[in-house]
Amino acid sequence: MASKSAKKAVEDSESVGLAALAKLVRSSYGGRQSDLEAKLQNLEAQALRLATVIDNISQGICLFDPEERLILSNPRYSEIYRVPPERLVPGITLREIVVHRVAAGTSAMSVDEYLALARSVNSGAISRTWAADLADGRTVQVYHHPMPDGGWVSTHEDVTELIATRQIVDERISLQTLIDWVPDYLWVKDSESRFIVANRSLAADSGRETTRDMIGLTDFDLHAPELASKFRADELSVLQTGQPMIDEEEFVVDRSGAGKWLSSTKVPLRNDRNDVFGLVGIAHDITGRKREDMLRTGQAQILEMIATGAPLDDVLDRLMHLMESQLTGILGSVLLLDKEGRHLRHGAAPSLAEGYINAIDGVAIGPKVGSCGTAVFRREPVVVADIMRDPLWEDYRDLAERYGYRSCWSTPIVSHQGAVLGVFAMYSMTVREPAEAETRLINFTTRIAGIAIERKKAEDQIHFMANHDVLTGLPNRALLQDRLSQAILHAERYDRWVSVVFIDLDNFKLINDTLGHNAGDRLLKTAAERMVGCISSTDTIVRLGGDEFVLVLSDQPKNVDLIAETLQKLRTAIAEPLQLGDHCVRATASFGIANYPKDGKAPESLVANADAAMYRAKEVGRDNFQFYAPEFNTRAHERFLLQEELRNALERSEFELLYQPQIDLRSGQIMAVEALIRWTHPTHGTMAPVGFIPTAEETGLIVPIGDWVLHEACRQNKAWQDIGLEPITVSVNVSARQFSEKNLVERVVHALSESDLEGCYLELELTESLIMQDVGLAVTTMNKLQSLGVQISIDDFGTGYSSLTALKTFPIARLKIDKSFIDDVATNEDDQAVASAVISLGQKLNMRVIAEGVETDEQVAFLRKNNCDEMQGYHFSKPVSSRQIERLLESRSR
Ligand SMILES: Nc1nc2c(ncn2[C@@H]2O[C@@H]3COP(=O)(O)O[C@H]4[C@@H](O)[C@H](n5cnc6c(=O)[nH]c(N)nc65)O[C@@H]4COP(=O)(O)O[C@H]3[C@H]2O)c(=O)[nH]1
């Protein structure tokens, strides 16, 4: 009975937990037998241990009886299938459990399917294991073990993560092999931008031995913070927006220090729930293409900079940067050859050390001056592969070593005309010769640098020429305004004066005309140099043109005496003797001064007033200086008016010719007349040549006026002949300006043919200075005139610089002794000496000599005594009208 009831109890115990079973046994048999009790206690302890193990095991466990009722389960089972523990009481059926699981979403199938599966497994005696994919996405590995009594025990393990990890690992291993073959960078990162996968190429360029070493790193471990931050920002955007980043160009510096351009694509990685949990990236090295692009755009930009006149420093700097961006480990430098062609000056070297740049700035070129100095000296490229060994660097080796420069390849920069402009050099920190790509870049860079430097030189020259006078190198009119305005601003601020001095060389025209243009140029240059030597660096002297200069004395005290002192220094300096060929000349100048603010406030009015003052200085006898006075402007205005009126005079037939007879001293007969022009001015009445000829010469109006005189004189002379008067010669004055006109001979031919006058009745009076201006041209013209029968005489003889040797070569018929020697010839021994010398000289050269301005009997007597041929002057007749000449000639005939 006891065993029966015990058996029953044991059977019952299958429907309760093990602990409950132990308690039941103890209460049934408690206290009856001590050994049994001990066994039971032991059993109870074992059951407790077992219960503890079962409760804490990581797998879910459940035990069912043959009626599919739960005997026991542990908390993990309840946890895995999300069935509350209070429901999993012993006795609950499998169906009921599965119903709960379906409700909790933790069943892999419907209740019936599940029961069918469980029963089919139980029907066999073999344990089975399967992975159940639960409705909630997890995978549970089930171990099902049938019991002999028809019940079963099963364990349940949640392997979701394990499977995922294994999947990743499996995939990674196979992927790794694959991606290691790819030369591009490939990687996978998690949501924190940590590398999960990286290919070999990326690992190697990141300085890591294996791809595993990359795992867990971020870009902050590999790149500079700015770059890493940029990468992280890009990736965050991909991770947060889920939008891929396609072909983004990025510049990175790898472990070797080399810069690389990458085209990167970053694509988000999503899990089954479509959540982004990382990204996959691929980066393609586009450095080569990028460099070519950069070279092309850089080249275009630099050419544009050159074309738009960017400063040379900027152009060369940009060029060096461009060149350096193309090559690794190369530092570029441009040195410019100075004006004298002897020293090299810093041009551009953005990456060379400042100490080195300063040390070589100004180095003289030579046969052994490193690579650059030698290249320019030899005018050919010099490649030094090892600075430490090459003898060309002997004197500069220590310097180069200090900065670590080991090789230097220099190429002269040459202009289109073949002039060396400077030198381009590539420095490297290693011993080597240029590679092909480098040689290509050397050629390219040298050519562009040449264009830039040449362009700059041309611009400088244009600028200089636009602002300076080529002959003297002084600033010109264009700079005057600028300098004067600055000086005025300064004077205004500091309550000072500015003196504007107009300077005109007095005897320049004469020297230029008589000694030739070269002598004139030398005089101008010397005068300019001497004036510059007398002024301070803040003052400006400008050549306006011809022999006109303007001096701007800045920052002057309000003291006329001090200004006069400075000008006196200038006068003395200008008047220093100057040897021009065979002649020693002393130049003088007339100065006109206008002071700011008294004589004008604007630059233009100051210059105009100084000019008016200079005219005054000329008027009062030259070689002096005059301070401006307001009335000077009235005169300047009058001069201006005169020019305007002179322009109209020809059209209005306001000119007429008077004729002054020339007398043969021996026969006392009129043998010629000199045609002398008069202007019947509308308001001033009759004007003598002195009142308008200088203005006509200045303005060039002398050419048409002279033409008119020539025609009129020929016409009149022919008219006298036509009325039966004894033929005489008419003498016409020719000014320098007329003589220099190329078609003078044609004009004379025209005048003769139009009037039908024979050439031998025309004489042209030239001045000494005029024919000495260009002796060659004068001889040619004179010979042509002579071949027409036209005679030539020299006016004002004795006042100029005629060379006697030259005189012999001219076809001259008459010399005219200047009036200044005749005036006092009766009393002044010097004048007598000159006059008699000219007379005997003329006779020796077979020329007739005529004295001019003869007024007195004493003068006539002297001339007769000295065998002078002819005379002209008031003694016989003043210049008279053609009608009066006609009468004089008629009386002669009678
Ligand atoms: N005190 C004084 N003067 C005397 C005496 N005898 C002649 N004269 C003046 O001396 C000048 C002589 O002419 P010139 O030396 O060729 O000097 C001329 C000549 O160089 C220039 N000239 C005159 N007509 C023309 C012309 O048609 N063309 C050019 N290019 N120049 C001219 O103007 C200058 C002055 O001419 P004019 O005033 O007509 O002055 C004339 C004449 O009137 C005298 O006994 N006493």
UniProtKB/TrEMBL annotation:
InterPro entries linked: Biofilm_reg_signaling (IPR052155), EAL_dom (IPR001633), EAL_sf (IPR035919), GAF (IPR003018), GAF-like_dom_sf (IPR029016), GGDEF_dom (IPR000160), Nucleotide_cyclase (IPR029787), PAS (IPR000014)
Organism classification: Bacteria, Pseudomonadati, Pseudomonadota, Alphaproteobacteria, Hyphomicrobiales
Coiled coil: none
CDD domains per the UniProt record, alphabetical: EAL, GGDEF, PAS
Domain GGDEF intervals: 496-630
Pfam families per the UniProt record, alphabetical: EAL, GAF_2, GGDEF, PAS_4, PAS_7
PANTHER family: BIOFILM ARCHITECTURE MAINTENANCE PROTEIN MBAA (PTHR44757:SF2), DIGUANYLATE CYCLASE DGCP (PTHR44757)
Top-rank taxon, per record: Bacteria
Name used for this protein in its record: EAL domain-containing protein
Residue ranges constituting the EAL domain according to the UniProt record: 639-893
Domain PAC span(s) in chain numbering: 246-298
Source organism of this protein record: Mesorhizobium opportunistum
